């Protein structure tokens, strides 16, 4: 049967700064993202606000980073504020060309210094009878935290997402020991698109010479085609993580 194809992109935005935090490159990043032509963007480490940076950088946008990146191409967006500090806040964001019916941000912080969340949204996509569920995630640096956060993701899927609904989960899993695949497959039926297509998750970190397989795209009740790591030029200049893209057929 014919399917509806969605192009998805996941990227750690690195708060709008380049690899070594020496230059604010959000405008360059926006132009590069626009060239990909994705329908849905899964973004991590997006600044909602930062008062000190706004005074320091002349090209700092007057709106949030996720609104600046969305611009006119992605009229629908959702932001999950995870980390809050005196100067501002950052978290995960979803940008979509499709209407967002509803969204919520699940706090998955594990009583440490890292404040993390899972941003879950429901999309209405023309040509697809069922709602499409998407989750943007950024897991912690400690393995015990990642295990607990993955378990909370599984609970969210089990309780809040119909078993037959199309589902895309993407983001920065920080799972350098590759422990997440088996839990998600066993409990939720999610399949990682690079592992399915090429036998292993993509190497994405550090972007200039990727070694670690930290970033992922998982799907359920959907098929992914031509997943790819976006090329070093210009992306290695724009973040410390290499972005991932894929066509998802529903």
Task: Describe the model.
The structure is a single chain. This protein has 250 residues and is of the alpha+beta class. It has a single domain, classed as Deoxyribonuclease I, Chain A (4-Layer Sandwich). The chain has 7 helices and 12 strands. It has a 6-stranded mixed beta sheet. A 6-stranded mixed beta sheet has the order 5-6-7-8-10-9. A hairpin with an 8-residue loop joins β6 and β7. α4 packs parallel to α5. The longest helix has 18 residues. The chain starts with a strand and ends with a strand. The model has no long low-confidence stretch (mean pLDDT 95).
Compile the SSE list and pairings.
Layout: E1 5-12, H1 26-36, E2 40-50, H2 51-56, H3 65-70, E3 76-85, E4 88-96, E5 100-107, E6 117-123, E7 132-138, H4 143-160, E8 167-172, H5 180-188, E9 191-192, H6 193-198, E10 215-220, E11 223-229, H7 232-238, E12 244-249
Parallel strand pairs: 1-2, 7-8
Antiparallel strand pairs: 1-12, 2-4, 3-4, 5-6, 6-7, 8-10, 9-10, 11-12
Helix pairs in contact: 4-5
Radius of gyration: 17 Å
Which term fits the overall shape? globular
Main pleated sheet: 6 strands, mixed
In the CATH hierarchy, the architecture is 4-Layer Sandwich
Q: SS-based structural class?
A: alpha+beta
Low-confidence stretches: none
CATH topology: Deoxyribonuclease I, Chain A
User: Can you identify the CATH class?
Assistant: Alpha Beta
How many domains? The number is 1
Task: Produce a short descriptive summary.
By secondary structure, this protein is α+β, with helices and mostly antiparallel strands. It has a single domain, classed as Endonuclease/exonuclease/phosphatase (Deoxyribonuclease I, Chain A, 4-Layer Sandwich), CATH 3.60.10.
């Amino acid at each position: 049967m014919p399917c509806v194809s969605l192009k998805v992109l996941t990227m750690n935005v690195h708060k709008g700064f380049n690899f070594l935090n020496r230059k604010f490159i959000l405008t360059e990043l926006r132009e590069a993202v626009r060239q990909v032509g994705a329908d849905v963007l899964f973004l991590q480490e997006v600044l909602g606000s930062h008062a000190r940076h706004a005074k320091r950088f002349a090209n700092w946008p007057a709106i949030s980073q996720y609104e600046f990146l969305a611009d006119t191409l992605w009229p629908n967006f959702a932001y999950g504020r995870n980390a809050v500090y005196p100067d501002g806040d950052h978290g995960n964001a979803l940008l979509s060309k499709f209407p967002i019916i509803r969204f919520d941000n699940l706090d998955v912080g594990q009583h440490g210094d890292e404040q993390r969340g899972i941003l879950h949204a429901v999309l209405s996509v023309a040509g697809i009878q069922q709602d499409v569920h998407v989750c943007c995630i950024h897991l912690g640096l400690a393995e015990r935290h990642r295990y607990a956060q993955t378990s909370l993701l599984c609970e969210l899927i089990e309780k809040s997402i119909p078993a037959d609904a199309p589902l895309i989960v993407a983001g920065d899993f920080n799972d350098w020991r590759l422990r997440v695949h088996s839990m998600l497959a066993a409990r939720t039926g999610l399949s990682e698109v690079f592992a399915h297509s090429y036998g292993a998750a993509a190497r994405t970190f550090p972007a200039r010479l990727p070694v670690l397989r930290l970033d992922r795209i998982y799907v359920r009740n959907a098929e992914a085609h031509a997943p790819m790591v976006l090329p070093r030029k210009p992306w290695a200049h724009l973040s410390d993580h290499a972005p991932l893209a894929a066509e998802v057929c529903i």
